[in-house]
Structures are given as structure tokens and as C-alpha cells.
């Protein structure tokens, strides 16, 4: 592929790459313990080697030459020896969960389990054809360890891990990088993701939390982008229930306001056609007033209704990363790419700096992918490329649900400039957004809402909910994210392209732009462009279900709470429940989060700073006044021991977090 811009806004357009008869390896959709998934009506087989061209097929099995088969069986020896030596599966002696009567006083650390043992253990990963730079037994042990995620002792494996040679080095730990890591790992590639700060630190924890089809793109004639987004939204609703949830929207039909009723309903009819369903979309003024009791009444004729979806964006990133780990993917936060490494003029790695201990590591990979979002131009500059992005800031307000009570989302066009603004219920609070302005403050520090943006959003609330008399003092928190938008030269920021782009420059693949909703499409497109650079690897890149089915839970919790935990934590949900101490399966006041989620995040989710815990693993920093300062004593009691921090480190991290919150998540001066 040349160095030119490649826009992708229509998926494959029905032109998926077929299997080449000379492929050395062919990947596919795989969930641990469930074998290869091939299309909607696929058969499920036990984990086996991927199908290999040039050899006889038996169903989906690849039968290699005997000498290769012996080598692969030898790789299973450690697992087989353990299975034979242990005899029958032994009864587990795990810690009793919080809802049982008798509990130990001290909470032990999560025990390490060998693959294939224990109720929630991961299945032994399927073997795949090796290559000359495949690691030895030590490397296999490291990979097996990483399938368990960021459990105790994970940092001890870093020197050996980073000394390996990788197929892909993915730089950037937002939803784009996470999606690429998952899709690459499940297709047999050795993939490493590094993030200079925390996972989802940038745009992917500060989005509008909507998984939507892009209804507003229809008026711009971008039907392919809308159709693609609708299909991805529906796939996430089906496969990530509890994490991605339906959200109904109401849009008032007022005299003289645009868009008019006919135009809006025409767009909704196209929306329905793309989703393959039909819904009722118009109600009269009386019914609309009942559905949105606090909305303005003057000039109200009726209202339009439609359905999209919402999510916890940071938890979505974590869930995708954890799914990638089950396939052997590795993700490291606070690991910055300081410079690019080259072989001749071709980028083939990066010099990494570990923010935990200051160590540096040279990491080599066959393909380096720049998935740093709005920060992509900075890394591209190391490759000598000119800037191509236009960073745009979107700011939001968080209000308590009792102050702006909504049964559904309310959408409106801002009275000043006609831009869409929304307010909707999210995680026990009400979220209001968003602005769309050029971000000129640089990207070295966190974005923050400005006074002008605060006034803009408050004006929208006053116009739509005049009787509530909302004030700045009602705002719990604010946040702002910077969108990676391709600079098309459009004067109006809202008209800048939201399509994603892929550039190949000096051997480094940059993937940027796009929407949260279409992260799977973006990831597959990145791998499609990377495939010519990965000699011997082929895959049809057909979409896979993003997540493996979540197991049922055993706990005395309401069905809504169970659904939420399964959606956010997948296969780890039962372990989270079992780790809870007395009273920790209760909701934190003012939120939908459980106290037990704090313990689990501190123990197993690579928390390095208090802001990681309160702004991204949980969202307490957005949901509670002052960034949850009133609950800090209990948070400390639950988490300090799990994090293994002494008092000095906790105190320093708490002070840094509260200062950060005041500067970037509170009201502007």
C-alpha cells in the first residue's frame, strides 16, 4: 500500500478477502474453550490448530506432517504432566463469597491456577504454526501467565516478555488499540499493546458514552457510515448486554424549530431500514409531555422517538483488553514509546520507557501500529510525516439524577447554532453534552471544559428545561475529551469527517479517526492493511463476536445487577463476587457501582494511580461530588491493601488525584 490516505467508511462493501490456496496460516474467530467460529451457523469444535492450506482438511481440522505434530504435542507436555499427576479434578477450596455467613478476616490474594483447572480457569489456548522467532519454554510460560491478566506478580515477567519479537506492536491503549489487539490475538498473531498513560486515558474515557448509528450523518448523505454504525451498534447490543444497553431518545417537535417533523421522520425511516426493524416514531404533544415532564411546553406539537445505545466507554476498553488477554494478547499501561526503531528506513520497533520503574526496553515487531488517536501526529512526526489531524474538543456536564430526572434521553438542537445537544440518564446520574470546538491547548495535559463551553451547555438546558431553573451549582462534575478528526479543511468543526483513516509511512501503520461504535470495523481494516507486511499470515478477517458468552453467576443479587456485572466483567464476574467482603455487594450511594468493584479493580486491573481507579476502572470521580472525596476513607480501607501501597504512596496519590479533579473535572474558573 502507498503512503496515501485510505478512508474506510463502508466496511468491506461485501468484498471480504478469500482464502489463498498457498496461505501458510489462516486465522479465524476463536473463543477460548469454544474452538473456531466460522460464520453465523458455525460448528463448534475443541481448540485445535487453525486450518492450514496445502494439507488435507477434515472438517475444520488441520492435519500437519508427523514431525510437526510431535513438536506441538511436546509443547503440551507441561499441561499434560499436570493433568496426569493430579488425577481427577480436585474440589476447590476458594474463599467463601461475601453473602455466606462465615468469612475469614483477611482477604487472600487471588491464587494462580493452571489452565484447565478451577471453575473459571481459561482453556488451554489452541496451538498454531510456529515461526523461527517463536519463544522457547520460558516464553510459553510468560504467555500462559498473561492469559490470566494483571494478577499479582505480572510486572515480574516484563523483562522476559519485552525481549520477545512480536508480530504487532500496538502503540495506544484506547478503544482503537484495544480492538486491534483483540482481533489480532484471536487470529493467532503475537500482539503487544503499550499505552504511555492509563488504558482509555484519552478520548476513550471521555466520549459521550453513546454507541449510536450516527443519525445526524444521514443529512450529510453519509449512508455507508450510518449503515456500518447501525450494524456495529446492534452487534454490541447483542453481545455485550449489561455493558452496552439500549437508550431511547425523545426529540421535541416545536413550532418553527428545525429539523421539521417530515425530515426527521424520513431519517428515522432510513435508520429503521438499515437496522432491519420498524418502530413507532411520533407521538402527540400530550404524550410527549408525559414522557418528558420537565421539557418546555411552549410551541410543543409532539415529538419524535427513536432508540440508540449507551455504554461505559472506559469499561468497554477494559473488557476488550481482557478478552484479548484470553487469546494471548498483552497490554501494558504506563509504558511510553519514546522513539521508533528502524531497520534501514523501515520502522520495526520502539524504545519503550516504563513509567513504573524508569527502565527502558527495545521492543521489535514485524509491524508497528500507531493507534494513539488524537496524539497520532506526534508519533507520526518521529517518522517524518506532516500533521493531518484536527483535534476537536467535546465537553460534558454531569448532574445528579434528582436535579435533572429523565426516563429517557432528550435530544434538541441548540438555540444558538442548531447543533445537536442531548441529556440522558447514565450510571445513576444525568449526562449533558456535547460541544464541538477546536482544541488549541495542546495535548500534553488533560483537556478541560472552558467557561464558554459551560455557558453554551447551560443555555441548552435552560431552553429545553426552563421550569427546572438549573444552575452551575447543580453540576457535579465536568469532563472534556479530544476527538481525533481528520483535517479536511472544513470551516465548521461539526462538518469535519468522522471517518477513520489508515496511513502507511516508513513501515509504520497509523490508524486514527472514526467512532467508538465502529471500533471492530476499524480494527479489521487495520489488520487488512497490515496483512501484506506479515509474511506467512493470512485471514479472511470476517467479523467475530466481540466477546465470548459470559457465564452465569451465583449470587443473591438483583437481575439488573447480575446483568451489569456480566456485561462489564465477563468471565471475571463470579470471581469479583467471590472476592467481596461483608457489605461490598451493596451499591455505592448515588451510583450503580458496587463497593466490590473497587476491590477487584485494585487487585486485578493494573491500577497505578488513584485516578485510574476512580476515573476509569470505576466512574466515581464523575458520579459523586468532589470526585468522591466523602467516600475516600472507605475507598482507602478497601483498596490500599490490595494495591500494596504504604501510607506515603496512598497520601501522595490521593493528593494528586484531588488536584487533578479540581483542575480538569470541576467547574472552570
Number of helices: 19
Shape assignment = globular
Distance separating the two termini: 49 Å
Our estimate of the beta-strand percent is 15-25%
Number of strands: 23
Q: What share of the residues lie within helices?
A: 25-40%
As a whole number of angstroms, the C-alpha radius of gyration is: 25 Å
Residue-averaged pLDDT: 82
Please state the structural category.
Answer: alpha+beta
Question: What oligomeric assembly is this protein in?
Answer: single chain
Low-confidence stretches: 1-26, 34-139
Largest sheet geometry: 10 strands, mixed
Structure report:
With 669 residues, this protein is an alpha+beta fold. Helix content is 30%, strand content 20%. Strands 8, 9, 10, 11, 16, 17, 18, 19, 20 and 21 form a 10-stranded mixed beta sheet that branches. Strands 1, 6, 7, 12, 13, 14, 15, 22 and 23 form a 9-stranded mixed beta sheet that branches. The protein is globular and about 65 Å long. Residues 1-26, 116-136 are annotated as: Disordered. Residues 557-649 form the Alpha-glycerophosphate oxidase C-terminal domain.
Key features?
alpha+beta, FAD-dependent oxidoreductase, single chain, glycerol metabolism, 669 residues, oxidoreductase, 19 helices, disordered N terminus, ten-stranded mixed sheet, nine-stranded mixed sheet, G3P_DH_FAD-dep, globular
What is this structure, in a nutshell?
The protein has 19 helices and 23 strands.
Strand and helix layout:
Blueprint: E1 6-8, E2 29-31, E3 35-37, E4 57-58, E5 61-62, H1 66-75, H2 77-86, H3 137-146, H4 158-162, E6 165-171, H5 175-185, E7 191-194, E8 210-211, H6 223-239, E9 244-254, H7 261-275, E10 282-284, H8 285-291, E11 300-311, H9 313-326, E12 330-332, E13 335-343, E14 346-354, E15 360-370, H10 376-382, E16 389-400, E17 409-413, E18 420-426, E19 429-433, E20 437-438, H11 451-464, E21 477-486, E22 500-505, E23 508-513, H12 519-530, H13 559-569, H14 573-579, H15 595-604, H16 610-617, H17 620-623, H18 632-643, H19 647-664
Parallel strand pairs: 6-7, 6-15, 7-12, 9-17, 15-23
Antiparallel strand pairs: 1-22, 2-3, 4-5, 8-11, 9-11, 10-11, 13-14, 14-15, 16-19, 16-20, 16-21, 17-18, 18-19, 22-23
Helix pairs in contact: 5-9, 5-12, 15-18
Amino acid at each position: 500500500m502507498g503512503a496515501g490516505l485510505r478512508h474506510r467508511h463502508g466496511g468491506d462493501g461485501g468484498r471480504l478477502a478469500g482464502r489463498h490456496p498457498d496461505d501458510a496460516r489462516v486465522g479465524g474467530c476463536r473463543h477460548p474453550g469454544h474452538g473456531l467460529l466460522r460464520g453465523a451457523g458455525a460448528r463448534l469444535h475443541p481448540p485445535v490448530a487453525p486450518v492450514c492450506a496445502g494439507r488435507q482438511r477434515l472438517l475444520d481440522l488441520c492435519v500437519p506432517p508427523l514431525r510437526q505434530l510431535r513438536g506441538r504435542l511436546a509443547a503440551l507436555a507441561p499441561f499434560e504432566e499436570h493433568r496426569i499427576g493430579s488425577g481427577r479434578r480436585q474440589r476447590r477450596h476458594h474463599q467463601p463469597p461475601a453473602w455466606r455467613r462465615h468469612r475469614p478476616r483477611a482477604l487472600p490474594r487471588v491464587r494462580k491456577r493452571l489452565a484447565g483447572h478451577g471453575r473459571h480457569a481459561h482453556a488451554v489456548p489452541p496451538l498454531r504454526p510456529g515461526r523461527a522467532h517463536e519463544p522457547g519454554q520460558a516464553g510459553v510460560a510468560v504467555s500462559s501467565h498473561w492469559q490470566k491478566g494483571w494478577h499479582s506478580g505480572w510486572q515480574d515477567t516484563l523483562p522476559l516478555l519485552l525481549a520477545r519479537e512480536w508480530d504487532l506492536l500496538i502503540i495506544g491503549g484506547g478503544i482503537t488499540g484495544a480492538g486491534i489487539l483483540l482481533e489480532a490475538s484471536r487470529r493467532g498473531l503475537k500482539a503487544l499493546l503499550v499505552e504511555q498513560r492509563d488504558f482509555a486515558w484519552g478520548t476513550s474515557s471521555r466520549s459521550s458514552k453513546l454507541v449510536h448509528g450516527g443519525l445526524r450523518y444521514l443529512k450529510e448523505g453519509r449512508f455507508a457510515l450510518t449503515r456500518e454504525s447501525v450494524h456495529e451498534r446492534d452487534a454490541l447490543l447483542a453481545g455485550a448486554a449489561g455493558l452496552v444497553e439500549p437508550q431511547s431518545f425523545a426529540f421535541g417537535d416545536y413550532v418553527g424549530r428545525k429539523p421539521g417533523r417530515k425530515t426527521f421522520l424520513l431519517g428515522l425511516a432510513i435508520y429503521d431500514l438499515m437496522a432491519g426493524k420498524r418502530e413507532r416514531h411520533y407521538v402527540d404533544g400530550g404524550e410527549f409531555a408525559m414522557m418528558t415532564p420537565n421539557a418546555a411546553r411552549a410551541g410543543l406539537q409532539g415529538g419524535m422517538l427513536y432508540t440508540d445505545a449507551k455504554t461505559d466507554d472506559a469499561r468497554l476498553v477494559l473488557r476488550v483488553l481482557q478478552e484479548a488477554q484470553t487469546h494471548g494478547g498483552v497490554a501494558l499501561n504506563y509504558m511510553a514509546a519514546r522513539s521508533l526503531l528502524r531497520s534501514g528506513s523501515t520502522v520495526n520497533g520502539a524504545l519503550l520507557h516504563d513509567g513504573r520503574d524508569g527502565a527502558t526496553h527495545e521492543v521489535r515487531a514485524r509491524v508497528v501500529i500507531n493507534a494513539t488517536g488524537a496524539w497520532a501526529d506526534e508519533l507520526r512526526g518521529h517518522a517524518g510525516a506532516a500533521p493531518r489531524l484536527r483535534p476537536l474538543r467535546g465537553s460534558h456536564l454531569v448532574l445528579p439524577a434528582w436535579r435533572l430526572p429523565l426516563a429517557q434521553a432528550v435530544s434538541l438542537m441548540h438555540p444558538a447554532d442548531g447543533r445537536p445537544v442531548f441529556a440522558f440518564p447514565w450510571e445513576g446520574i444525568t449526562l449533558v453534552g456535547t460541544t464541538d470546538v477546536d482544541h488549541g491547548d495542546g495535548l500534553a495535559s488533560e483537556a478541560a471544559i472552558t467557561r464558554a463551553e459551560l455557558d453554551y451547555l447551560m443555555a441548552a438546558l435552560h431552553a429545553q428545561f426552563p421550569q427546572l431553573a438549573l444552575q452551575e451549582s447543580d453540576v457535579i462534575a465536568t469532563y472534556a475529551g479530544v476527538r481525533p478528526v481528520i483535517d479536511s479543511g472544513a470551516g465548521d468543526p461539526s462538518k469535519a469527517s468522522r471517518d477513520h483513516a489508515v496511513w502507511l509511512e516508513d513501515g509504520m501503520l497509523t490508524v486514527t479517526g472514526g467512532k467508538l461504535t465502529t471500533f471492530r470495523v476499524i480494527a479489521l481494516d487495520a489488520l487488512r492493511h497490515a496483512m501484506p507486511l506479515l509474511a506467512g499470515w493470512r485471514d479472511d478477517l470476517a467479523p467475530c463476536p466481540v466477546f465470548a458468552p459470559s457465564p452465569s453467576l451465583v449470587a443473591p443479587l438483583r437481575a439488573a445487577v447480575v446483568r451489569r456485572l456480566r456485561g462489564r466483567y465477563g468471565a471475571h464476574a463470579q470471581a469479583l463476587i467471590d472476592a467481596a467482603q461483608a457489605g461490598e455487594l451493596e451499591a455505592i450511594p448515588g451510583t450503580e457501582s458496587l463497593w466490590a468493584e473497587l476491590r477487584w479493580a485494585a487487585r486485578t486491573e493494573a491500577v497505578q494511580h488513584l485516578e485510574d481507579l476512580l476515573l476509569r476502572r470505576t466512574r466515581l470521580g464523575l458520579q459523586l461530588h468532589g470526585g468522591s472525596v466523602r467516600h475516600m476513607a472507605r475507598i482507602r480501607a478497601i483498596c490500599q491493601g490490595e494495591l500494596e501501597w504504604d501510607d506515603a504512596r496512598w497520601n501522595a496519590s490521593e493528593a494528586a488525584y484531588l488536584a487533578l479533579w479540581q483542575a480538569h473535572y470541576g467547574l472552570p474558573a
